[in-house]
Model the fold of this input.
Amino acid sequence: MTRRYNFCAGPAALPEAVLARAQDELLDYQGRGLSVMEMSHRSNEFVAIAEQTEADLRQLLGIPSNYKVLFLQGGASLQFAMLPMNLLGHGGSGNFIQTGIWGKKALTEAKRLGFRHHVAASSEASGHTKVPAQDALQISTDAAYLHYTSNETIGGLEFDYVPQAQRSDGADVPLVCDMSSNILSGPLDVSQFGVIYAGAQKNIGPAGLTLVVVRDDLLGSAPPTIPSLFDYQQLAEAGSMVNTPPTYAWYLAGLVFQWLKDDIGGLEAMDAINRRKAQKLYAAIDASELYSNPIALANRSRMNVPFVLDDARLDNAFLKEADEAGLLNLKGHRSVGGMRASLYNAVPEEAVDALIAFMADFEQRRG
Ligand code: PMP
Done:
């Protein structure tokens, strides 16, 4: 068996130790004689897995007790719709900071459903290369929440600060953050947020699971006309089991959380590794004549590193030779082209070293 280095933006690399443990437990979970996939979600065994997973996540992120943790389906994209359904039940508008494609999708979905919306700031004029500054935010007087995307996975643009949202009357506006592509990459102060959400398939586990962390006071304002599966309050009351949850993905997320705690040593340690990985790749890009990345230094994503070759005719050769060298999935998103190396938690530092060595070699051979 040869496992190669996987730089996919998502579904992304999983820690090898997690896959090995899942393999070990696949047919017979801890002597129970069946797979986790075959268990009732209401069984004592699965309820124990579910509770341990939540407890480990709460410990890793330091989630305060006045927040609920939901394990849902539908991806981050369904949250684009569930958020306004749940948070605008008493009126008001969703305010959005626009820093790229995913933030735009979140706004477009709220718009499509007929909710009031307002662009509080946008980095579009800079080609989404620089995050808007705190003092550029214009919060509307009817703002019920401020939504932003802490890391734009396609553009490779990451916030270097947590926005503060206040209306002109001084009222605090709950902050809602799509953390799909940088959750768990480092420590976080959850108490600054009203809602945090993320699709699992980058730093949490396999696709099919969506994590939502929601502050208690934001529950209970969804209108009764929405499906019960979309109502945070009902989902929270049922422990995310209004219907059958994605049990196996939930279990795998639990293994990833244990790996983060026990093998990595927590989110501070993860943060240090991630910074090192990203810094060395950006340094290699900046030092080269062939590769470039346009993002403002302070906003360069630690998780997704897009770069272009100065001659796009070399792209195919680059990708082919990278693949042959055991470096997978470096092609940029179809909407922007070029390359993208995603350096999520499970991508080991050796993978980044191997990529840098390959890039230098490729450049030298073309030079
Ligand atoms: N938000 C961000 C920042 C993303 O990167 C993605 C997926 N790449 C999404 C939302 C959409 O996630 P999903 O496919 O889980 O709906």
